[in-house]
Structures are given as structure tokens and as C-alpha cells.
Design goal:
It is a single chain. By secondary structure, the chain is mainly beta. The protein is built from no helices and 21 strands. The protein is globular and about 40 Å long. The mean pLDDT is 91.
């Protein structure tokens, strides 16, 4: 069982589209879906257990990856998607650190993001991302590099929103 100082590597070249279940709340420094994980991986069922990720974040090198379990962002981290399809985080996200999204393929966070302190969601050069609902009691800053596009598809509640950078933020919810 990995711990908060361990990076979890998904190195499967078969079977195609494997499903993995946490079985209980787990912690890891970060996750890497390396170049052999081309079939894609599905982690958990929607909000089944919570995965706490340390500062190692998520690094997708291949495939289309889906994370259904809830995720706690345990520290400032980067999620990079250079796979062949979208990285989807469908479970709820506790944003306890700043989150940078990067890479050549889309990142979609469809679960509700909750933050209890001022946090930043940062899109680095070339990143394309979408998020669902956001609930925070402080200020949420969206920092978007030139050429990036953040789609906000849910309701933002209890938040002060601040935007920095030359990229685009589009609010799609009424």
C-alpha cells in the first residue's frame, strides 16, 4: 500500500482500460500514468473513497485516464496531461493547495471543488481545462497563461473570484 511519500506508477500495457479500486482512503505523494498505460485507467467509482495527493500531483504520459474517487490536494501541485486523451477527475476535489494544470491534452474536473482558504487554479502555457462547481469561503484566483482556456461549467458559490493572466476564462453556468 503506498503512503504519502510514495509515487504510484500505472505501468500497464494490458489489460485495456483497467479499473482500480482504492478499497479505503489512501495517500500518495503523486501519480504517474507512464507511456505503457496507453489503454487508460479508471480509478474507483464516483466519490467511493478519498485519495490524498501530496506535492507530486498527477503526470499523464499516455492514454485517457479517469479518476472517479474523491481527491484531496494535500499541497501545491501540478496535474500534467500529455496523454492521448482527456484526464478526467469526476470525484469531488478538496483544494488544500494551489493547483497548476498543464500539458497538451484537456483536463476536466467535473466534481465539485471545495476550498476553505484562498487558492489558485493555474493554467500553464497550452493547457485547456474545464471545471464543474466551485465552493469556497475565500478568494479563488484563476491564473491563465496566454493561449489557455478555462471553461467553468458549474455554479461558483461563496467565493470571491479573481482572474490573472492573458488566457481566457469562460463562465457557462447561469
Amino acid at each position: 500500500v503506498p503512503g504519502i511519500t510514495d509515487t504510484v506508477f500505472f505501468n500497464a500495457d494490458s489489460p485495456a482500460n483497467p479499473s482500480t479500486t482504492l478499497g479505503a482512503a489512501q495517500s500518495a505523494l503523486g501519480m504517474v500514468f507512464n507511456s505503457n498505460a496507453i489503454g487508460g485507467t479508471t480509478l474507483g467509482t464516483l466519490n467511493d473513497f478519498t485519495l490524498t495527493l501530496g506535492t507530486g500531483g498527477i503526470n499523464v504520459q499516455s492514454g485517457t485516464q479517469t479518476l472517479n474517487s474523491s481527491i484531496t490536494i494535500g499541497g501545491n501541485q501540478t496535474w500534467t496531461n500529455n496523454g492521448s486523451g482527456a484526464l478526467t477527475a469526476a470525484g469531488n476535489i478538496a483544494q488544500n493547495g494551489n493547483l497548476t494544470l498543464s500539458g497538451t491534452m484537456p483536463i476536466s474536473i467535473t466534481g465539485t471543488i471545495t476550498a476553505v482558504a484562498s487558492r489558485s487554479l493555474i493554467l500553464s502555457s497550452g493547457a485547456q481545462a474545464s471545471i464543474g462547481a466551485l465552493s469556497t469561503t475565500a478568494t479563488q484566483t484563476f491564473t491563465t497563461a496566454a493561449g489557455t482556456d478555462l471553461q467553468v461549467n458549474g455554479i461558483i458559490s461563496g467565493a470571491n473570484v479573481h482572474k490573472d493572466g492573458a488566457g481566457t476564462v469562460t463562465f457557462n453556468e447561469a
